[in-house]
Amino acid sequence: KGKAKAQKGKKITLKIAKNSIRISFDGGRRLDLSKMGITTFPNCILKLDDVDELDLSRNMLKKIPSSIQKFQKLRWLDLHSNQLEELPAAIGTLQNLFYLNICNNKLTTKNLPEELNLLKNLHILNLGLNCLDSIPTSLGALKELKEIGLFDNALTSIPNSVKKLPNLKKLNAKRNPFPDSTNQEEPDDTVKRVKTLYLVQEKDLCSSCLKICQDEKDKLNKLKDVTPNPPKKPSFSLLLTPNSPAKDNQEEWRLK
Predict the structure, then answer these.
(1) How far is CA 68 from CA 45, 150, 245, 251, in A?
(2) Predicted model pTM
């Protein structure tokens, strides 16, 4: 009996949902049902469709119904760390959506709805820790996108339509099986190459050639004395830290 009850999950009543509404830092109304052991979408929350933010993260949801379209005021939707295998096409009707986190689920490329490209106001999209083997080129329609998380998937390439989004500032695609060189941008090589190298002793050089060699040697010695600054590591403050359980402090997910 106990096992069956655990599989059924916690039942969310309208009273529980109303008591779970919080006021976010910018004054919006946030319905926080995270970490509540929910296995099926609680239809009672459709009566609270005027909230600005909906957090269903860290549950056991396998499906989001098409009725999600009733939340037309929604700006912030967090579904990370569930067991979602697909998303409804109706998610494309949430035209005010600013932030969408569907990280750490079981989503495949096939089950990503094409309607995601209708979210014209989306600034932050997290698709990390899923089962994606490619990214739809149609996501290039999200011209307002500033941050996208693609880490820990099965990607071998990222379409140029996504990489070259006009407002994109952060793209985390770590731990994907990208080819070592194929389709990767090679850095500019400033070192001049020669096919053949001849070695001679100084005594065999004429005075002018010897001076040229000595000048080049002095230049190299000067370069050795210069210590290069370590490269600055990129920051993904608004994207889930890869390979970690979901963060408890949801404020860290917000756009500052």
Answers:
(1) 10, 24, 26, 23
(2) 0.70
Tokens of 104: 């750490």
What distance in Å separates the CA atoms of residue 241 and residue 237, rounded to the nearest whole number? 8
What string of DSSP letters covers 221-254? HHHHHPPPPPPPPP--TTSPPTTSPPPS-GGGGS
Alpha-carbon distance 24 to 32, whole Å? 10
Q: Does domain 33-172 have CATH number 3.40.640.10?
A: no
Distances (CA, A) of 34 to 30, 148, 153, 191: 11, 22, 24, 54
Query: Alpha-carbon distance 131 to 19, whole Å?
Result: 35
Whether the Cβ atoms of residue 88 and residue 65 lie closer than 8 Å to each other? yes
At residue 70, what are phi and psi to the nearest 5 degrees?
-70, -20
pLDDT category at 204 given cuts 50, 70, 90 is low
Is the CA virtual torsion 63, 66, 70, 75 positive or negative?
Answer: positive
Phi-psi map region of 153: left, alpha, beta (phi>0 left; psi -120 to 50 alpha):
beta
**Which of 58, 11, 6, 7 lies closest to 32 in space, CA to CA?**
58
All structural domains of the chain with their residue ranges: 33-172
What gap in Å lies between CA 64 and CA 11, rounded to an integer?
16
Q: Please tell me the distance from the alpha carbon of residue 236 to that of residue 168, in angstroms, as a whole number.
A: 12
Q: What is the pLDDT of residues 220-250, one digit of tens each?
A: 777 666 655 655 555 545 555 444 445 544 4
Cα 53 from Cα 61, distance rounded (Å): 18
